[in-house]
Amino acid sequence: MEHINLSSLTLQSQEQHLVKDLFLVYMAYQGNSIRFIKEGDSVTWTVNPSSDTCLRSALYTDACLPLAATLIQLRHNIKNICCELSRGRVALAVGSAAEEFFNLEVMPLLVKLELENRSDQRSLTLAEVATYMRPYMQITKQLNDVLATMIKNDLVGGEVLSMLSEQIRKCVSPTTRDMLQKFEVAGLEQYFELLFWWIRYGKIQDYCHDFMIWDLKSSKMFTKSDIVPGDNSNKLNNFDDQFCVVEALCPSQLQPAFEDVVNCGIYLNIAEMIKGETTTFDDERIGEEEELEEWKRKSVDDVVRDVKKARLKASKDLVQILRKQFGLDEYFESFHNFLLLQRSDWLVSFYELSRDMLIGSIRVTILLVILLGSGMFVARRCGTNINITLVKVLCSSQNWNDYIDISLHSSSFHSIEEEANASNYDYEHKMWPVLEKYDMFTSLHLVIKDMNQDNKLNTDFDFEPTESKNGLDALSVHINVDSPLSLVFPPQILLYYNLFFRIFFYLFGATAQIL
Predict the structure, then answer these.
(1) Strands (DSSP E) found in 50-201
(2) If you compute the radius of gyration of the chain from its CA atoms, what whole number of angstroms results?
(3) Which tens digits make up the pLDDT trace of 283-340?
(4) For residue range 153-181, what is the model confidence (pLDDT) as tens digits?
(5) Whole-prediction pTM
(6) Cα angle: 304, vertex 309, 310; to 5 degrees
(7) If you write DSSP's letter for every residue of 50-73 in order, what string do you get?
(8) N or C: the chain end with fewer CB closer than 10 Å?
(9) 144 burial class (0-12, 13-18, 19+ CB within 10 angstroms)?
(10) A biological process (GO) annotation for this entry (predicted)?
C-alpha cells in the first residue's frame, strides 16, 4: 500500500493523523497510515514507516493496536455466531448478548472520543486514547476468547453454558465476571424454555439439538446408535427409541438435577402412553406464556428445586397409574414374600426335593432354572437334563398364586411337556434362580466394594474371590423386570433382593442341616 509521507509533519500533527486512523481500525475500518490483515485468529498490522518511531511504539501498547485487534476479532466472531442459526438458540443468545455489549458499551465510547478529537477545542493523544480504552482490554479479550472457543469447538446448548460457568469460576475481575454472568443468563433463559416443556409435558421443542435429550423421531436426523453407539448406560435405552440422552449437553449448572430431568420426562411419557392420551404442542402452549416467562427468569437454584419437585410429582402420579394398571400392591407383596422367604412352605418342599442336587459340588456349567409361573423346575448338569416335577407339592402349598403369580393368570398344571409349551406363564423372563460362580460371602463383598466405588468411598484392600463349593451356597435369583415396571424396580433394589434371597436361603439350608 502507498503511505502518506508523514516525515515532513510536526510530531503533534503525525500523532493526530495516527489517532484518527486508530479510531478507524477500532471500528474494523482500514486507515490511511494504519492497515491490518486478519488471518484466522491473528491480526497483522502495518504502520506508516515514515511516522515517528516513538509514535509507532506507542501504538503497540496494550490499549491501542492490541485492543483494536481484539475488537476486530470480536466483531468477526459475533457475526459468525449470530449468522449461523445451526449453532442453536443458546449460542445465538450468547452471541446476541455479546453484540449488545459491544454496541451499547464499546461503540458509544469510541464515537464520543472520535467526536471530541475532531472538535477544535481538544485533540487527544495516543496516551489519552489508551487511558480511556484500557478498562475494556480485559473484558473484550475474555469475551472474544469465549466466542472463539464456541466457534472452534462447535459448542452448542449445554456445552456453551458449561463453558461459561467454568470461565466465570476462573475469572478474577468483578466487571468481567458480571458481564459473563449476563451472557450466562441469556443462554440459560433459552435452555430453561426447552427444559420447561420437557418436565411439564415430556415434549422436546428443540430443533437445533441444544437440549440434553433429543427427540429422534421429530428431527429424523440421527438414530440412537449414531449418537451413543454401544452405550448401554443411556438413561432412555430401556424406554423408547424416540428419545436419546446426551449427557454432555447437560450444563454444569443443572448437573445436580440431571437424573431428575431425565426421569421426569420418562415418567410423563410413560404415563401418557399408559393412559393413551395425546396433546399437541399448540394445545399445551395455551395459557402457558406467562408461566413460561416467569420460569425463564428464575435462578439456577430455583430451577433445580422446581425440577426435583416436578420429578417427584410425576413419579407419584405414575406410581398411582401403575398401581391401578398392573395391580402393583399385589405385585410387590408377592415379590417381597417370595424373595425374602417370608412364607416358607413352598421353600421347604423345594429344599427337600432339590437338596441332594444342591448339596453336591457344582461346576460353572450347572444352571438351575425355575419357571416360576408354571411351577416347573429344570436342572441342567453337564449337558444332561434332569426334570424335577414339583407341581403337586407347589399346588398343595398355601395359595401358591398369592406368593408368586404376579401376572394374575393361573396355569393349569398337567405335565412338564405341556407346560413347557404353554404361553400363559409370565415368570420365565422375569425371575429365575441360578447357581452363582462365587459363593454368597464373596458376592456380598464384591457388591459392597462396587457400591463403595460408586460413592467414591472405596479403600484399597486385597481380596481373593472364593468360588462356590456347593449349590446351597451358590443359589441366587436372577431378576429381569421390563419397562415400564423397571421404573419401580431400579437396579439397586433388585440387587438388594438378590442378596436377601441368597442370604436367607443359605441360612435356611444351614438351619435345615443342623436340625
Answers:
(1) none
(2) 35
(3) 555 567 778 888 888 999 999 999 999 999 998 998 888 888 877 777 777 777 777 7
(4) 999 999 999 999 999 999 888 999 999 99
(5) 0.70
(6) 95
(7) TS-HHHHHHHTSTTTHHHHHHHHH
(8) C
(9) buried
(10) spindle assembly
DSSP run (H or E) holding 237: none
The helix/strand/coil state of 334 is: helix
- Residue-wise pLDDT tens digits, 37-58: 998 888 999 998 888 889 999 9
CB 322 within 8 A of CB 485: yes
Spatial separation of the C-alpha atoms in residues 514 and 194, rounded to whole Å: 64
Which helix H or strand E contains 133, and what residues bound it?
helix 126-133
- Cα–Cα dist 475/129, whole Å: 83
Domain layout of the chain by residue ranges: 11-155, 181-325, 330-514
What is the rounded CA–CA span in Å between residue 438 and residue 28?
72
CA distance 397 to 405: 13
Q: Report d(CA 132, CA 111) in Å as an integer.
A: 12
- Spatial separation of the C-alpha atoms in residues 229 and 301, rounded to whole Å: 34
Contact 259, 213 (CB under 8 A): no
Place of cell 398401581: 323
User: Side chain identity at 89, as an amino acid letter?
Assistant: R
Calpha distance 191→198 (Å, rounded): 11
Q: What is the largest CA-CA distance in the chain?
A: 118
- Give the pLDDT confidence score for residue 488 in this predicted structure: 72
Beta-carbon contacts of 41 under 8 Å, excluding residues fewer than 6 positions away, are 73, 148
- The whole-angstrom separation of Cα 256 and Cα 233 is 18
Encoded amino acid at 94, one letter: V
DSSP-derived letter for residue 37 is E
DSSP state of 103: I
